[in-house]
Amino acid sequence: MASGNLKNPFGLNMAELELNISVDCVLFTVINDKLQVLLTRFSPDFGYALPGGFVRKKEDTDHAANRILFERTGVNYIYLKQFKVFSDPKRFSFEPMIERINQQDAMQVNVNQLPERVISVGYFALVNYESIHPTGGEFSEDSSWMDTEELPDLIFDHAAIIAEAAEALRRELYFKPVLYNLLPERFTMPELQNLYEIILGKSLDRGSFQRKMIRWDIFERLQERRTGVAHKQPFLYRFNKEKYELAVEQGIRFVL
Amino acid sequence: MASGNLKNPFGLNMAELELNISVDCVLFTVINDKLQVLLTRFSPDFGYALPGGFVRKKEDTDHAANRILFERTGVNYIYLKQFKVFSDPKRFSFEPMIERINQQDAMQVNVNQLPERVISVGYFALVNYESIHPTGGEFSEDSSWMDTEELPDLIFDHAAIIAEAAEALRRELYFKPVLYNLLPERFTMPELQNLYEIILGKSLDRGSFQRKMIRWDIFERLQERRTGVAHKQPFLYRFNKEKYELAVEQGIRFVL
Known about the structure:
- By secondary structure, chain A is α+β, with helices and mostly antiparallel strands.
- Chain A has helices spanning about 60-75, 95-105, 160-175, 190-200, 205-215, 240-250; strands spanning about 15-30, 35-40, 50, 50-55, 80-85, 120-125, 145, 220-225, 235-240.
- The longest helix of chain A is centred in the middle third of the chain and has 18 residues, at about 160-175.
- The interface of A and B includes residues 20, 55, 82, 115 and 174 of A.
């Protein structure tokens, strides 16, 4: 069974990998007014999981996160932000994996070469689901968006990783309100507020919200209003990207 | 040279360690109006370094950070916050270390058992230097506070780790203004502002600062004033710990 050139289930040379260090990528989006997350099913199948995998010996974890997201989902060129390390010695075990792999007779695994534990570095991003196209990638795999409030059973500690990523996303909005990527070019204040409420997971006071948005001075109010809505037609706004980027650079805190 | 029971320079059994995963601890304090950081000198001596070391196979990185800080500096029971992983494949090399160790003939090292790279998980804390007593710890070592603006040459990427930790500390203050640990029980607004300015590394407007502090509603103004100062005698304040903890819990953002 022993071999210096073992193949892992994903076609990679195990000798190239840090088998005790992985990355997991949490891609968030908003669909149907729900905060959703991109999940995959591994091959061989262990159930729903975040797109993740082992770091190569000659790459940093940022590179690993981008590479692995692409390999598993076909999604490329996303800014992924590192947010936390998950290192409970019992969070991960190769055992169930080895069992399945050996059942499927897909590879030879020398169990003695595998580490007892795997530490994972978590990455997240908030993306416009219309701008990315999960194809399944090189090695796998069904990718699908799932409502964070109705997640299926996930492998290992992936449910906890998603919960921590959502918290990191909420914190990040204070420093850089990246959610503008999810809005159409022209939007109303109620639409912006709705998006904030979905991501923050709480209701916001309408008057206070709009005062803060105007104080940030990163939007332009257009002459047009949203038509086709039942009551008062709200004004349309758009981001002023120059002002926005200047505000981020100057360290403005986008606190609600 | 080969042995399954190698000792590393710090007296630990190398077989118990994840030799490709370390932690580094950045302890900040303020002394003489300067943001200072606790540095050690390793034994064998490689120069100034953060207190750091390898994660054990059966512990998580939080545990490793606390254990290692204690072993290297004698400092215990500090809340250390994980802030970032440093994973450039070229950030660390065992080579200079092995050379020194072999020169000192202190141990037998089988170079083939060492990984090509080490990923480090960074932790930080802001502490009152009067409340902790770096003794040198079990394995080392001179520990000393050094001004972050006048650091000596540091090993590996430790200068970059300190810079990132300082940024993480500044961000953390928005969520939890832990700097109250550095103040005497009774303090003036100018003293509090001075402390913020040292940590944030910038001047703040006095009027705006005091309005914000009062709006946070976590201080009590006492009847007494600070005496022995040249001009107008400022009022003394103290933290109201209950209000402070409630505010943190309610998610108040302490933005300046």
